[in-house]
Design a protein that fits this description.
This protein has 127 residues and is mainly beta. It contains 2 helices and 8 strands; from the N terminus they run ββαββββββα.
Length: 127
């Protein structure tokens, strides 16, 4: 995987990965990968990230079952951001929505929820 050497990881060894639904083109989430999690993503064909808060690897869906099957991986022109097209099972957002981008600023400058909740996080994550 020689192409990994050309990637521009940040000073913490991470590169942002935009996760997009292959069919609908909806942006589902943004995560961060290091070389090891990117290699695992390529090999397993499921998204694997580096958790900045927990300082460990995590595979999307390992707790919830809401996996992301990798279809294609793109690299931007600066080689510092990934675009990963996936087939999403269930919701991508840990708050219970299909996409992490379920809110927008309305004309009054207030946050407005624009999506329907798919699941209750407390039931899935046992928090």
């Amino acid at each position: 995987m020689d192409f990994l050497n050309g990637l521009k990881f940040d000073d913490k060894g991470l590169i942002p990965a935009i996760i997009q639904d292959e069919k609908t083109k909806e942006v589902l989430m943004v995560g961060y990968m290091n070389k090891e999690s990117l290699i695992k993503t390529i090999e397993e064909k499921k998204t694997c990230f580096w958790s900045r808060s927990r300082q460990k690897f995590w595979i999307k869906g390992e707790t919830s079952g809401h996996i992301q099957e990798v279809k294609e991986i793109f690299l931007d022109c600066d080689q510092d951001t990934l675009l990963i097209k996936v087939e999403q099972t269930g919701g991508a957002c840990h708050m219970g929505y299909r996409s992490c981008f379920y809110r927008k600023f309305n004309e009054a400058g207030e946050l407005e929820i624009t999506a329907e909740k798919l699941f209750e996080p407390e039931k899935i994550y046992k928090k």
